[in-house]
Design brief:
heterodimer; A: 105 residues; alpha+beta; 5 strands; B: Glutaconate Coenzyme A-transferase; 2 domains; 10-stranded mixed sheet; 8-stranded mixed sheet; 31% helix
């Protein structure tokens, strides 16, 4: 199991006021991502646990693009990877942030 | 004028006919009329096949003359050896056993799906002398020029006592194989499931067939074109949305061929949903050269499709096609009729778009399904996926592609076939689809092949679709632009991450590269609710229970 922790300073806080969201499933070729709004508004941490070795550079590239694109300030994002491909990782990250934007009823 | 009579009288002009007569005489003790007892099949083959013969053992990508294949593998190598196998599909283990047993030596073929790993091993072990890996049309064409079989072993559903054969929806390669063999004094043996008084329709005329063997069990058909909608991923759905919105719609593609795979299955399954909402019904995807893909059933039922001509059939689709004669080509008996050579020619000359997947794409856009340990063959893809320079009829999509390719608009108006590669940037087990160099180049060196096996040459490819967007290679003006356009949709592969970001943004500004958002597509809309059918059972329901899925796809 490889563990990776990436920290970023973001331009803006993530939209919405939902406190936490879980997207995806831990299955082969898929991943589970937990989003928690618990950091300072311009901070973002992404923590990755993956069974696949040697993809640190790819993870960094995917997460950097994501942070650049949506500016997820305040979010602590935990990824439990099941060997997902980068396109699925990017998609789940986008799905999670979108769901965090939906306000509580 | 003096006629060279002495020369013409010295040469025998009918050696093939005499050889055929000798073989038939040797075989006569095993036959009553044309019918041979199944138990005598190996002896029959030892009587009609000679060392060094070119033999076509069908060997299509779907139906298999499986009984004749296993009997041929039982002949004594001391009697029959050095055969040159000229068949389109290397599909059954027996096809390769012939080489391991010393019965066959040389191979010319086209497709090797299930045996691709074993074939690679046999080639590396020096057991097989490889002629070439062909496209279907190319191999069939060579049957008439320099690879004419002396013996063809074919397969039909039934025969009458005169040898008339009925193949039903799985006619496939047989007519061309038998034509080439029979008219060049070769011998044709057919295995059939039964002998009947009158065949439902004559797919091959009896005077081209020498022997009939009734087999103990029906012949095997590989269900090759069924894709379970339950396995289609969100990324594949996104790719399908991109293809429809970014290619089918702007070019107005009506006449087309879909390669097999989950990417094209996704396109078929979102025609009645995503494409319908875009108002494209009747404007795109109306006429197909296509195997009867079960995943096209919802689009057919919703009135999208006008007609389909097929290379072969698909297990479970018989009753559905019989009930839809406006859509499929059917015989007087009501069942569908396929013909791989006709459909390949149709797909080459009469369609405006080919879209299919591949395993590797290099920086020039060359693609290959050959990897270091897999020799998958080509099938029809290189013909479907090429710009036919012999085409002379115009159509709107073809002219638009031609205009984009020419750039300045000077010179003669020319058309271009749209050749689209739709892939995910990473394949199974995180293997990158985009590579600096194709594995097949190394493979060609290792096996001493004259030609590296490339499925589709980069200069024929017009578009590459990935989850990251569409690269339109027609609009690239320099090799550098082309390379960056490919890197620019190669995602997080090494090839993609080594892109020149500035060049890629410039290409995007010129719409050489289009991202999902450039086409008004929200990636979060790419989910399975867009699929008109989400399981094989859904496909059955769409068909009004006329589609009868093979057992391995029945997971309920």
């Amino acid at each position: 199991m490889d563990n990776l922790k990436l920290s970023y300073a973001t331009r803006t806080p993530a939209a919405g006021d939902r406190q936490s969201v879980l997207v995806g499933v831990v299955a082969s070729g898929n991943l589970e991502v937990l989003f928690e709004r618990k950091l300072a508004p311009h901070e973002c941490v992404v923590e990755i646990a993956t069974p696949i070795h040697g993809y640190d550079e790819v993870w960094k590239a995917v997460v950097e693009d994501f942070v650049e694109r949506v500016s997820p300030g305040g979010l602590y994002i935990s990824i439990n990877d099941g060997g997902a491909r980068p396109d699925i990782v990017a998609l789940r990250l986008m799905q999670g942030v979108k769901t965090m934007e939906v306000n509580h009823e | 004028m003096t006629a060279p009579t002495d020369r013409t009288t010295k040469r025998a002009w009918d050696t093939a006919q005499r050889s055929r007569d000798e073989r038939l005489a040797a075989a006569s003790r095993y036959a009553r009329g044309k019918i041979v007892d199944a138990a005598d099949t190996t002896k029959l083959l030892e009587a009609i096949v000679r060392p060094g013969d070119r033999v076509c053992l069908e060997g299509d990508n779907q139906k298999q003359a499986d009984f004749l294949a296993s009997r041929l593998a039982e002949v004594a190598p001391a009697i029959i050896n050095n055969l040159h196998i000229v068949q389109s599909g290397i599909v059954l283990p027996e096809h390769l056993d012939l080489f391991a047993l010393g019965i066959a030596k040389k191979l010319d073929f086209s497709y090797s799906g299930p045996q691709s790993v074993t074939l690679a091993r046999a080639l590396k072990g020096g057991k097989i002398e490889l002629g070439a890996v062909h496209t279907y049309l190319e191999l069939f064409s060579r049957y008439f020029i320099d690879l004419t079989p002396q013996v063809a072993l074919t397969v039909a559903r039934c025969a009458d006592r005169d040898g008339n054969l009925y193949m039903g929806p799985n006619t496939e390669d047989s007519p061309v194989v038998i034509e080439a063999t029979a008219f060049k004094q070769g011998i044709v043996v057919a295995q059939v499931n039964e002998v009947v008084d009158k065949v439902p329709r004559v797919d091959v005329a009896g005077d081209r067939v020498d022997f009939i063997v009734v087999t103990p069990s029906p012949f095997y058909v590989e269900p090759l074109f069924t894709r379970d909608p339950a396995q289609i991923t969100e990324t594949q759905i996104l790719g399908a949305m991109l293809a429809i919105k970014g290619i089918y719609e702007p070019y107005g593609v009506k006449r087309l061929n879909h390669g097999i795979g989950f990417n094209t299955a996704a396109i078929e399954l979102i025609l009645p949903t995503f494409a319908e909402r875009l108002g494209l019904k009747g404007k795109i995807a109306t006429h197909f050269a296509l195997n009867p893909h079960p995943t096209l059933i919802p689009a057919i039922e919703n009135g999208w499709v006008e007609q389909i001509h097929s290379f072969g059939s698909e297990v479970g689709m018989d009753d559905y096609m019989r009930a839809r004669p406006d859509i499929f080509f059917t015989g007087r008996d009501g069942s569908m009729s396929s013909n791989r050579m006709y459909c390949q020619a149709a797909g080459l000359y009469a369609t405006d778009l080919f879209i299919g997947s591949t395993l590797q794409i290099d920086l020039q856009g060359n693609s290959s399904t050959f990897t270091r340990d897999r020799i998958a063959g080509f099938g029809g893809a290189p013909n479907m996926g090429s710009d036919p320079h012999g085409r002379r009829h115009a159509s709107a999509p073809w002219l638009k592609a031609g205009r984009e390719a020419s750039g300045d608009g000077h010179g003669l108006p020319r058309g271009r076939k749209l050749v689209v590669q739709i892939v995910e940037t990473f394949g199974e087990k995180l293997v990158p689809t985009f590579v600096e160099n194709l594995d097949s180049i190394e493979l060609a060196k290792a096996l001493d092949l004259a030609l590296p096996p490339v499925m589709i040459y980069g200069d024929d490819v017009t578009h590459i679709v990935t989850e990251e967007g569409i690269a339109n290679l027609l609009l690239c003006r320099t090799p550098y632009e082309r390379e960056q356009a490919i890197r620019g949709v190669a995602g997080y592969t090494d090839v993609g991450r080594a892109r020149d970001r500035k060049a890629v943004e410039e290409l995007r500004a010129r719409k050489v590269i289009q991202r999902p958002e450039d086409l008004g597509i929200d990636v979060l809309d790419a989910n399975r609710s867009l699929l008109a059918a989400r399981s094989v059972k859904d496909l059955m329901h769409w068909s009004g229970d006329l589609y009868d899925p093979p057992r391995k796809f029945r997971n309920w």
